[in-house]
Amino acid sequence: IRLSVGALQYGEPRERQIAAMTFAFLAKKSRELCESISELQGILPLTRSLTAYAAEPATLRSALVALRCLARFAPFANEVAEKGGTPPLVALIDSDHAGVRLDAAACAAALCAHDEVGSLMIDAGVVPAAKRLATAEEEELQHCGMSIVAHLAAANPKNRYVLMEAELLPPLLSLCRPRDAAQPMSPVQRQTQQQALRGLDAMCTMPEAVAALNGMPEFFPLLFQLRDDSDELVRPHPGPRPGPSPW
After folding, report:
1. d(CA 90, CA 93)
2. Lower CB density within 10 Å: C or N end of the chain?
3. Cα diameter, the chain
4. DSSP string covering 200-242, please?
5. Which phi and psi angles does 181 have, rounded to 5°?
6. What is the number of H-type helices and E-type strands within the chain?
7. Which of 23, 138, 100, 126 is nearest to 69 (CA)?
8. Residue-wise pLDDT tens digits, 75-116
9. pLDDT tens digits, 151-166
10. What is the pLDDT of residues 210-238, one digit of tens each?
């Protein structure tokens, strides 16, 4: 790890690429190795690489994978934010390089799973970015966009108001919609649908969101479609919905 820290900061392009790949490999393995990366000051070089090596997609992508794996755990997600990782990460969601864009979106989704970091991601502009992802052509980008929205919406009421003001309800409804039997969903599309439903469920704790949904003619027909969906993860579970209901 110490060698990789030095190589990522001061090495030649090939050395930087290998160092970033090493961080990604280690961070995937376990929390213990993520902790070692943190203790040996490896997170700061990774966050700095998001701007320093924008012209090196291979290095950048490995750094993003490493940060995404670190972000699975709250202490390291907080450290990524503290070390200035959120603004450049959000900027990379609009990268012209398809692979960088996908890795940045996935990393952003992982960070947004943590309440405090999610607020910093909102400050960095992740909500408009997530809205753009929701309308992207690539299934994987749509999934990342809905994961970001679902994580933020589930965290706290303040986030839900931000999502409401950003007009995220129409994309949520669009990606909740089941496909007909002639065009079955791919596994990624099904996961996207589940994240969109999770986000919609959280948004429905807000009276303002409920009122807005009541005014959308497609909303109640969509509920009946979802009720009849063959996927057990989409159909409603029997019994009362936990917690207060705004309906």
Report:
1. 5
2. C
3. 61
4. HHHHTTSHHHHHHHHT-TTHHHHHHHHHT-S-TTTSPPSSPPS
5. -60, -30
6. 16, 0
7. 23
8. 999 999 999 999 999 999 999 999 999 999 999 999 999 999
9. 999 999 999 999 999 9
10. 999 999 988 888 888 888 776 555 555 44
